[in-house]
Amino acid sequence: MTRPFHRRKALMTAASLAGLSALPGCAGARSRRHDLDADVRHLPVIRARNDRIDRITVCLRPFRAAGPRLEVEQVGRKSVVHNYGHGGSGWSLSWGTAKLAVERAAISPGQKIGVIGCGAIGLTTAIVAQQAGAQVTIYAQETPPFVRSARASGSWTPSSRIVKTSNLTPEFAARWEQMARYSFSCYQNLQGLPGNPIEWDTFYGLKSRDARPTPPDPIGFAELGDRIRDIEPQGNRVPVHDARLPYCEVLKQPNLIFNVTTYADYLMRQFFERGGKIRTMTLHHPSELTALPDPVFINCTGYGARALWNDESIIPVRGQIAWLIPQPEALFSMEYENVYVVSRRDGIVVQWQGEDMGHGYNRTDETPNVDEARRGVSIINGLYKSMGYNV
Ligand SMILES: Cc1cc2nc3c(=O)[nH]c(=O)nc-3n(C[C@H](O)[C@H](O)[C@H](O)COP(=O)(O)OP(=O)(O)OC[C@H]3O[C@@H](n4cnc5c(N)ncnc54)[C@H](O)[C@@H]3O)c2cc1C
Known about the structure:
By secondary structure, the protein is of the alpha/beta class. It has helices at about 5-20, 30, 90-105, 120-130, 170-190, 260-275, 305-310, 370-385; strands at about 55-65, 70-75, 80, 110-115, 135-140, 200-210, 235-240, 245-260, 275-280, 295-300, 315-325, 335, 340-345, 345-350. Strand 2 (about 70-75) and strand 3 (about 80) form a beta hairpin. Flavin-adenine dinucleotide (FAD) binds near residues 89, 120, 121, 283 and 302. One of its GO terms (molecular function) is FAD binding. One of its GO terms (biological process) is D-amino acid catabolic process. Belongs to the DAMOX/DASOX family.
């Protein structure tokens, strides 16, 4: 029963430690006390220390300059609908791209469908195919938690490394918008489930006082976010006047989070409850599909499509995460000096994003880089140290 009091006391201590009493909304507390966004005193504390890193993971984003491949191809007498190449947006766009792929598969009730791949795209595609009446078998080399999707930051990023500006067509932009809007609506229906696979947290974008101008993006990834501004909560920018703090502005906004461990488990259970089957196998050539019983396949092999389909249009974009021990008392996300942090229920993502957007582009190395992991953690450690915390 005493917990609320202690928590409040702890937060007040955090505020005074951080010297935030000079913030707008604190000094003029009487007139501003209902402006929740002006109050950034409640920045939770992440215990960013190297000895709290419990693993380092690396994932390759399957990027295609022209955007994901959603085409139908014949392999002998089998129809294959491709559904791969979702860059840094696979979880975010999964339901929308699944819907488009299943429409292209023109499923009739009771029809057998093979889905190749069991990551973010394969699992959602399999469930959408089941919803359309298909009997689905997933064929995959790996299942969660061993798929690349399991190593994602786990937030709503539908426009991350999805297409190059030079390849952007009005048709693709419209298709992307359709995928993003449909996925977003699905995620709103998945909140409040046991284990919270999907939930909103608060994102704090801390603008450093020493921030250098953002270097130009050397790759030319397109930014499509403006097309769906009406469905995304925008939040507020809060100026910070206390010169003792290392940041001068905070963007505070709601952030949609995927707790990937629980979410993948939820998707697997949904798939099995609808009668789905999984066969663990590695395909070495598309012609091997002719030996499988299903007449129609949906190919959701992500980066694996590069080798399997000999598709060199897939460019790997390497991304690494240092995972800190979870802190359920501090669930939120933030960005500071190019380090993205998502404190999820299943682990705290600390991702140093490199000097510019080209970081990781065309890099196939999936070996963890310990120095890079520690660099991100030490930047966040330094942030809290400058606020008076010994984390
Ligand atoms: C560091 C990082 C952070 C990210 N953060 C986010 C985020 O916050 N939000 C977001 O939306 N996206 C994020 N992404 C992007 C996201 O992870 C990818 O878009 C997503 O993983 C792609 O999913 P997929 O299902 O296509 O591929 P995968 O997860 O790689 O799944 C491919 C499946 O195909 C199978 N397969 C492949 N080849 C074969 C074969 N030859 N035979 C049989 N089976 C095969 C695999 O075993 C696996 O089951 C992030 C990526 C990185 C690297």
